[in-house]
Amino acid sequence: MKRKHNQSGFRKPRLASGSPNDPRSLVLRGIRDLVQRGNFSRALSEIDKEVGASSDQVYRSKLLALAGRCLFRQGKFSEASAAFGKICDLVQSQPVEWLSPALAQVYSLLKAAQTDQAANLAVTVMQRAVSNQQQYQNYIAQVGANLAATGQITVPAQPTNPDVVASRLGKYFLTEGEFKTAKSLFQQALQINPDNYQCRLGLAEIALREDDAAEATSLAKDAVMIGRYQVKTLAAWPLLLAASRKTGTPIDAGLISGLNTATSSVRARATLMIVRGLRSQGDASWRQLAASWLQAEGATNSTVAVELKKLAFSSAHQGSDPGFTYQLQASKDLLDSPNISPLEWLSATKQTLRISLIKNQAVDPSALILEGVNRYGKPFEATFTQSLAMACKRGGRADIAQSYLQQNLAKATGDSWRRTLWSLAKLQSNQGDHVGASASYWTYAQNESQPHRFRAYALMRYALELFQAQQPQLIEQAAPQVQSALAQIQDYEVLLDVARQLRFSQFKQGKELAENAYQRGKQMALQAFDAAGHPSPAVTILFKFSRRAFDFHKNDDIIATWTQLDDAKRQWLWSTNSAYWNWQELVLRAYLASGQTEQADGFGGALMKDPATPAEALAILGPTYLDLKQQQGDFTTMFSVCERVTHAAPGNERTAIAYYWLALRAWKRGKKSQTNEFAQRMLAALGKDCSLYWKGSVQASAYCLKAGLDLTQIPAHCPVASKKLQERLLEIQNDLAGLPNSV
């Protein structure tokens, strides 16, 4: 293609674009739509027809590209690779058009697990990318001479830089876990262009996966600096946070302050990433970072501002704040934000109402409900009323709560009606109105539109309330009702759940009903297991049954789920699925709880030593196996297991228990800084949601250890109640006393 030069001497040609009414463009668009909708068979049929009828190489290459996409999306990676290979053959003489199908062919080979072929093709692709770039540079060097000689020139399209090609290939291999090839490609790219920050990010991710956090930090930091805090460097912050989490050392403060040179949008997004990461790691510095950004730039980016305020609000109501100052301010900040969702508005309003009532401040729940309805619409009225009623209860005004719940029952329907009636029944029970509570539960149980599981629970609660109301004649009537409800349950999981509730109740006949329900649920679960045709649902049944069997102290039943299987069945069930390993942990726990320590050691030890046991499974099994080793006084093995678990699964929430013991060992050795580091890793592994009892206990232990076992050194905004901290401090001191001095 030739073009006359303009005043600058030459200009690039415009690529011809097909007319939207061109028949071939319409065909391509139609096939693309079929592929997008997942109608692969029809798309391939149309492609075959068009390829056979056309000799236009460009058109055929576009059709084959669609065929490749179609095959790739179906998981037919080998066939997709062949299709992309045909495109490469068609456009092999074109220095730009060949690259996209060549890259697609490499990725298809990787997805097909043909890693050697993919690596060899990547070498070929790189060689051609370098060759094309050199030819282009040679041509550009001759542009002046050609222009002077002929007065016109042909300007070829510029091929993709080789370092960019290497970077893209490296990402493909990294995604598929081929770290060695990925690292080679990234390093090759850096040799071509040392300023390629994306390759540094790729190498940082590899270093992190290879447990070299220091190298990952260095590479990610370089990427941010070289990339000058541009938008593409945002990917560096999760890597820096992950490395910080592994090492227990904070991110370079100078690197964070360098965000002042970034654009406001990049700075906002990076700040949100960093704040979330620091908060999940239990690093309190996130508060100051968030507050500083909100004060300086919160008005310029409402989306990020709302997210930061939500984080502040969530944390405010997880910690203890005797004066409620911080909680009220966090609620107000969130309510003042534009475009918050109905649930976000409701959460902040509930806290405001609760605290206002506790502080005896004037507040009108009806006005708040009306504000919510005006803001979000009439359909939210029942939900707002029920939720704010419960906020009144938590604010110490059960009388107001009961009034609003009773009002709501008259107009609520569906889930709102269910939640309102259940809340009313619980409130009546707490207030000592057991007759009223039993009536509410009975009303619920008779509503056939409600889920059967909840109706069964309601009948059980009805019986319990009658028992507490001390009305013997009604209690006798309740037992057959509950028994009848249990007989109607045909789902083993529901039946075992209800049995558990009955077992832990104070209902006089509850124990007998619970045992009968358990035995029937056990039979149903084992029948479902025998009928399962796939290992995934089969092992899920074993896990769910064993979990409830443990509640009933039926250790022999749990152990039997393993011992009664032959080797073939055990092999069939083996999986990396978490349900499988949670079941195995329950078997181990059953051995330990029943005093069969020798069997527990043999069973658990084999799993912990097996190289096929996945990393996450080690974290699941670890706490129970550590209990066994502690009981046996085998501290050498115990700490060896701790080290293996923390190395294999550093981010798993259960790994926090292994970090706990390593922290105690460090303390016993007089290494205070190492103790603090392990405590920090405990918090990072646990994450922000510590509502489960065991997680809350470990979280409290972490704060005690971070404070050097001095509760006066714990930050004011610690999310753990002081009573909990005192309890855990005693447990830590007991555990330390049990460790030998030479540990």
Write a structural description.
The chain has 743 residues and is mainly alpha-helical. The chain is built from 38 helices and two strands. It has helices at 23-37, 40-53, 57-73, 77-90, 99-111, 115-141, 143-150, 162-175, 179-192, 197-209, 213-226, 236-247, 253-257, 264-280, 285-297, 302-316, 325-335, 342-358, 365-376, 381-394, 398-409, 414-430, 434-445, 452-469, 472-488, 492-503, 510-531, 535-551, 555-563, 567-573, 578-593, 597-609, 615-632, 635-648, 655-668, 672-686, 693-706, 722-738; strands at 3-4, 152-153. α8 (162-175) packs parallel to α10 (197-209). The longest helix has 27 residues, at 115-141. The model is unreliable at 1-18 (pLDDT under 50).
Question: In brief, what are we looking at here?
Answer:
The protein is mainly α. It has 38 helices and two strands.
- How many strands, what sense, and barrel or not for the largest sheet? 2 strands, antiparallel
Distance between the termini: 79 Å
Mean pLDDT: 88
Strand content: under 5%
Give start-end ranges of low-pLDDT stretches. 1-18
Radius of gyration from CA coordinates: 33 Å
> What is the number of E strands?
2
Helix/strand structural class: mainly alpha
Strands in their spatial order, largest beta sheet: 1-2
The best one-word shape is globular
